[in-house]
Amino acid sequence: MKIRLLGGAGEVGRLAVLIKTASNGILLDYGVSFDANDKPVFPLHVRPRDLTATFLSHAHLDHSGGLPSLYVSTKTPLYSTPLTMELSDLMYTDAIKLSGYYLPYTLEEVRETMSSAVPLTYGEPVEIGRDAVITVYNAGHIPGSAISVIEVEGYVVVFTGDFNTVDSNLLRGADLYNIPKNPDVVIMEATYASTDHPPRERLEREFVQSVKEVLEGGGSVLIPSFALGRAQEILLTLVKYGIDAYPIYVDGLARQINQIVGRYPHLLKDPDLYKKALEISIEVPNAYVRKGAVEEPSVIITPAGMLKGGAALFYFKKMAQNKKNGIFLPSFQAPNTPGFQILSKGYAFLDGTTIKVEARLEWFDFSAHAGRRELEEFVKRFTPETKIILVHTDPLTAAPFIRRLAKEGYDNIYLPTASGEEIFLSKKFW
């Protein structure tokens, strides 16, 4: 068996892994990254005719964003959960609207992608390709996300996609109990291999307390959030702790995602809390309501999470220079983004204007990824004979993680560092 890293090797983003055996070509994710000019960067090319099956772990574009480019002339079966496919359809449509000029696909290819989907249910094995079976389990990352166990021609492969083993208000942690302890290989994300996330209950209390202080002081709170996953988690946290005495507005793509996720209550940790949150929150359908949202003490949840665009920029320009207000960032802030700039320098340069932040500014680590502690525990679940490949991480982050585990006797971890790298696996040789 050959494993080829098409993307996500030595980098966070554009994850794509090809498993090649005598009779099968199985593609695991096919995502995109975005460069400094917001142009999409794709994984290495794979010929669709060489694929017998494709698996999509979840709907975030860094895992899913390149897939429609493979559905121009072929219809390889695409295995994923129904929620992931419904969310991906929305994400693709939005990506075309924002970056269509730079994308090698149109809505026609998106339709072909959707029509190629084969639904997966957690815990139910499904035959894929030739002499191959896939079983998926809740990954705990975003709604619909899945860890896959692939049995192919005598090998067992575990592919995590992105995963989180800690319960959140939105989802239960990843279902690890059914993951085999002795697969041949585990391909796992290690985004936060050098970072422990704070205890979730403490984080929630600190976040809610900060929100309350701004509201009780007569200000409003802007919470720029990733539309998929983070916006829903923040909304549930606010409602859980009784912040609904004040208006909670939801803007941008998060509105549609809220409604889609609400149609899958069986996948949520607390369906009743989610239903209550949707009933309490106020959707922002137009500029008139958007303008009104900033004229009273309120909480506003809106993309984009790094303030790179979307409705968040409108609110930021209106709210940033009022000391009564709060701007709370609950999402990762990449370098060279306005969100990173305001955290590090206290101002942002937007549309030719420098905007100094006078509002209360805080960052909260509401990550939906496993942290260092959880990643170490995950590695230690497997037998020493299992080969572990780290993806979706950078070498500076992963190297200390690997060294620390090696000192404890776990010398079965490999870190590929370049796209195109190939790993050969047999029952005798690594």
UniProtKB/TrEMBL annotation:
InterPro entries for this protein: Beta_Casp, MBL, Metallo-B-lactamas, RibonucZ/Hydroxyglut_hydro, RMMBL
Residue span, Metallo-beta-lactamase domain: 13-218
Keyword Transport: no
Highest taxon, organism lineage: Archaea
CDD domains found in the cross-reference section: TTHA0252-CPSF-like_MBL-fold (cd16295)
Domain Beta-Casp: 231-342
Protein name: MBL fold metallo-hydrolase
Record PANTHER family: CLEAVAGE AND POLYADENYLATION SPECIFICITY FACTOR FAMILY MEMBER (PTHR11203), MRNA 3-END PROCESSING FACTOR (PTHR11203:SF52)
The entry's keywords: Hydrolase
An example Gene Ontology molecular-function term: RNA endonuclease activity
UniProt KW Hydrolase keyword: yes
